[in-house]
Each structure stands twice: as structure tokens, then as C-alpha cells.
Design goal:
This protein has about 350 residues and is of the alpha/beta class. It has eleven helices and ten strands. The chain has two domains: about 1-115 and about 295-335, 2-Layer Sandwich (Nucleotidyltransferase, domain 5), CATH 3.30.420.40; about 125-295, ATPase, nucleotide binding domain (Nucleotidyltransferase, domain 5, 2-Layer Sandwich). Strands 3-2-1-4-5 form a five-stranded mixed beta sheet, with helices on both faces. It starts with a strand and ends with a helix. The structure holds 5'-O-[(R)-(carboxyoxy)(hydroxy)phosphoryl]adenosine and zinc ion.
Length: about 350
């Protein structure tokens, strides 16, 4: 039984096919980064149009060259959260194809997709575990007891950490998406030149906050009449240190409290090597294992959607009504399925 996964929630048009016996057997991602780069962020209308233009050619040339269309028995697509128009393109494609093939569809929560991404490979899932989900839209610490059993311990009260990386990158005249650019620039930074505060670090909560950190960067830049490349690298380093430390402080606290023996980090920011090394140190302190998705499955992809759709296949149907929701919090997971 092959499951086709479709992801169009933001600026990646992605398709993948999951085979329960072999894992991911076909996978393609078309990134719209160049289209949005000059605007410093994703322009929703441009994203929808581009998904519309790219999805069918991507399916024909990158998926149907590997698998037989009639072997697809289930279609899983991202139903939310994300950009409404962009999500509708994925849903329309999923439902049109499913109707033609007379097979069921399932609307998958994008965040649940990220949660499952580390288990796409040969990694055996050992529940319970603690997950740090860090992307452009979310920063969450989640105690995972099983599939669908997600207890959110803490989350950002304002900007997501990926969003903070993107906004600070813009302040430093770097390209979108900002995370990889800041990580690269920070390598030239001199440690200790700046020190930015870490909001909520001493508070008795697992919640985090990143908008103040971004404002501190803005003030540091305003204090310099014309920042040099070295100034920018020093700021990038200090920002990255504070942002990753803000996450590490709360994860350490949550590992101590929950005593979980597996720590998982997923989402686009999980690609950051400084964050990775801090989390590896925390897992050692807690005598726990640690797991990250493959780099290509940290950022948005359809493999995680195909796999999650397969896990949740009991909820699939042939009713083809629209399930798209631009806001779909993890804690309301059952609402759309049930
Ligand atoms: O998961 P993702 O692809 O999309 C969302 O669901 O949001 O995450 C994208 C986010 C962007 O904010 C991007 O700047 C950030 O992940 N990101 C990184 C790195 N690579 C991507 N942040 C920090 N360091 C990185 N190496
Ligand atoms: Zn994502």
C-alpha cells in the first residue's frame, strides 16, 4: 500500500511516497525561496500561484518516473496550519487525484508531520519521549506519550525562534530564510562582543519569548552608525548563542522534570549545529538518547506528511470535504479528524 504525501503549507511544493515495507520510495521538493527572497519573507499570493504551477509537473516528472500511479492507495496532504491559499492548492490536488483513483484522502496536521519526521528512517519509535519542535512558525516543548498523545509543556509567547532568525537576518541585510545565513555569518563572529538577554530564562515556566531578543539586536545595530561585516558577524554570533540557549534552558528543565530517556528535535531550526550540540550535551546529562531528522526532513517536506498520513490511515475518508485550516493548533488535533 503506497501513501502519497503532499505538502504546500508555505513556500515548498513537496511530494513523497511512503511504502510501509521500504520507507520513502520517491521524494521531490521544489523550493520557492528565490521567488520570495527579494521580499525578505513569504508572500502568500505568490506562494499559492507557484504551488499551482509546480505541483503537477513535479508529480509527473519526479514521482511518476518511480512509481505506478495505480499503486497509490491513500493520499495524505497538509490541511493546516499554514497559508490558507497555499494549503488549498495541495488539498485540491489531493482530492482531484483521489477522486480519479477512487481512493481515500487524509488531511494531516503539519506540526504532527514535523513531530514524526525523526522516525522516517530506520529509527524505532520509543515512546514516551520529549520533543523540541522549532520552525518558522512554532517553538514548542512537547511531551509525547504516543501517536496523537501530545502534551504541550511550553511554547513561545510571541515570535517563533525561526521567525526571530529570519527577522534578525533581515536587520543584518541577509537573505531569507535567515537561519542558515546567520549560522554561516556567526562563524566569523568574536565571542563576547555582545551579550543579549534571554527572556523568561529565570521564570518557572517552559514558555519562551524571542521578540525581545530581536529588539535587542535592533538597538545594538542602531548604536552603530555603519556596522562593518565584523560587527554583523559578532551580532549574528551573540544572537544565535542567546536564541539557542533560550531553547536549551527550557529543554534541560523539561528533561529533568519528565525524566524522558529520548530527546527529539525537529523542524527547520533543528538544522542549526549550535542548537544540536547544546541538545546533545543535555541528553548526555540526562543519560538519554537523542534523535534528529535527516537534514532534508528538518525543513518542510512531504515525506513526513506521507508517513504521518499512513500512521493515521484509520481516519482517512472518501468524502473529499475541505479540511483546510490556516490555524490548527496541536492541542486541537482531534477536532478536524473526529
Ligand atoms: O520547518 P520549516 O521549514 O518551516 C516551517 O514550518 O516554518 O522551518 C523554517 C525555519 C525558517 O525560519 C528558517 O530560518 C529556519 O527554519 N532554519 C534555521 C536553520 N535552517 C532553517 N534556523 C537556524 N539555523 C539553521 N541552520
Ligand atoms: Zn514546517
Amino acid at each position: 500500500m503506497l501513501t502519497l504525501g503532499i505538502e504546500t503549507s508555505c513556500d515548498e511544493t513537496a511530494l513523497a511516497v511512503y511504502d510501509p515495507n521500504k520507507g520513502i520510495v520517491a521524494e521531490a521538493v521544489y523550493s520557492q525561496i528565490d521567488l520570495h527572497a527579494i521580499y525578505g519573507g513569504v508572500v502568500p499570493e505568490l506562494a499559492s500561484r507557484d504551488h499551482c504551477q509546480k505541483i503537477l509537473p513535479l508529480f509527473e516528472s519526479n514521482i511518476l518516473n518511480t512509481i505506478n500511479i495505480n499503486d497509490i492507495k491513500l493520499i495524505a496532504y497538509t490541511a493546516g496550519p499554514g497559508l490558507g491559499g497555499a494549503l488549498l492548492i495541495g488539498e485540491s490536488f489531493a482530492q482531484g487525484l483521489a477522486a480519479a483513483l477512487n481512493i481515500p484522502v487524509i488531511g494531516v496536521n503539519h506540526l504532527e508531520g514535523h513531530l514524526q519526521a525523526p522516525f522516517l528512517g530506520k529509527n524505532k519509535v520509543q515512546f514516551p519521549l520529549l520533543t523540541l519542535l522549532v520552525s518558522g512558525g512554532h517553538s514548542m516543548i512537547i511531551d509525547v506519550e504516543g501517536i496523537g498523545k501530545y502534551n504541550i509543556l511550553g511554547e513561545s509567547r510571541d515570535d517563533a525562534v525561526g521567525e526571530a532568525f529570519d527577522k534578525v537576518a533581515k536587520l543584518l541585510d541577509l537573505r531569507y530564510p535567515g537561519g542558515p545565513e546567520i549560522e554561516k555569518l556567526a562563524k566569523n563572529g568574536i565571542k563576547g562582543t555582545h551579550k543579549f538577554p534571554i527572556p523568561l530564562s529565570d521564570k518557572d515556566t517552559y514558555d519562551m519569548s524571542f521578540s525581545g531578543l530581536k529588539t535587542s539586536v535592533l538597538y545594538a545595530l542602531q548604536d552603530m552608525s555603519e556596522p562593518t561585516d565584523q560587527d554583523k558577524a559578532d551580532i549574528a554570533l551573540a544572537f544565535q548563542d542567546s536564541a539557542t540557549e533560550a531553547l536549551a534552558i527550557k529543554v534541560r528543565k523539561a528533561m529533568i522534570k519528565t525524566k524522558r530517556k529520548l530527546l527529539v528535535c525537529t523542524g527547520g531550526v533543528a538544522a542549526n549545529t549550535v542548537l544540536r550540540s547544546k541538545l546533545i550535551a543535555i541528553s548526555k546529562e540526562a543519560e538519554a538518547n537523542i534523535l534528529f531528522p535527516e537534514l532534508k526532513h528538518c525543513t518542510d517536506n512531504a515525506a513526513m506528511i506521507a508517513y504521518t498520513g499512513y500512521l493515521r490511515r484509520d481516519l482517512a475518508s472518501q468524502s473529499y470535504k475541505s479540511l483546510v485550516r490556516s490555524r490548527w493548533p496541536l492541542k486541537m488535533l482531534t477536532e478536524i479528524h473526529g
